[in-house]
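Bit of a strange request maybe. I'm writing a small parser for structure token strings and I need a real example to test against, not something I typed by hand. Could someone generate the tokens for this chain?
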Amino acid sequence: MLSGPSARRIDAGGYLNDESTKLMRKLEKATLLLIFNNQHNKAKNRCFILVEYHYTLSRNTWINLMTLTDVYENSKYGDFSGSRTDIIQQGGTLDTQETANTCEVYGKKCATKDEFTNLIRTYLFD
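Reply from user aminoacidic:
Good idea to test on real output. This should exercise your parser:
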């Protein structure tokens, strides 16, 4: 049986593995969508990947994260984070509220998911 610092390292490793497993299970349950699209851009001689991740924050709210990255340089070219909340009003009508928290492509700020999508087209589809 180990004692001293070695035993503590083993215990800490076991703890981290247990906590990591718990976190992964929570994330897996909350994940709604995880997709990617990659494209080699001949004009820029770069390979870009767009990763899109949606996860549940609460019963009526989900988060959308999108990141555009240059695969060769591992540098981020675009970043979007936003949320969507669906609220059922009296009478059964659905009210949807969308918010963009972060929206930027290669230094250019944007305000909506549609603007982000339009800005990344030159990297993925030209």
